[in-house]
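This section describes the prediction task in plain terms. A model, or a person checking by hand, is given the sequence of a single protein chain and must write out its three-dimensional structure as a string of tokens. No templates, partner chains or ligands are provided. The sample shown here is typical of the held-out split.
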Amino acid sequence: MTLDLGRSEMVSPSAETESPTLAHEAFERLRADIISSRLAPGTKLRLHDLRDAYGLGLSPLREALSRLSENRLVEATGQRGFRVPEASVQDIMDIAMVRKEVEGFALRLSIRHGDDSWEAELVAARHKLALVERAGRDVAEDLWETRHRDFHYTLVSACQSPCLLHLQRILSDQFDRYRRLSAQSHSPNAPRSLIHKEILEAALARDADRAVNLLGDHITEATKLIVAGLSAPQELRKKPVRKSRKASSR
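The expected answer:
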């Protein structure tokens, strides 16, 4: 099998004395291609194919695959290597359940411990997200993804728990893979802008109960759309992902 990753930036292959920097590069590039579904569920990740596709040596690729396996973005298949995990309704429901608990608890702690700097960063993150939401179809998919992710991370960034922040990043990766895979996420639905604004206002008001409830509702609604997308006819789920989309579909 030859991987066709089209837009992946190629770098020159290195000797087998690759530095940790190359292992990190391999991790980030594979992670991005898995989350964006450019590496589709079920894709076999053979080292020699990956070496040809990414222009990286075998050692950093092995290390990257091991790290991705720990984060459940890659699945080890015994002695046969690695593959991108299949998608299932049961799995996204499980991810969503744990994400609500982890992110909700982290948000509650963040509201308790956050200072003026956290509030300023949160307002700035929400403003950047609002700008791309208002721009609608003129905004690239990846830009919206980045700013949406930054807003959610900033919400919990003052929790004072490196463990919670680590889990939040892992769960966000798993959740975002499903959201971008789901055909339903490209269909019009209620605007996301309002819920983001309400979460921000509750956090700034230090109303932890309301903020956590709104966040849980936000994750639940997104999960319903993902499940609907996974349940759509196979031919619809194979439609190519557009480079940009209307902000109201988020």
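For orientation: Residues 89-113 form the longest helix (25 residues).
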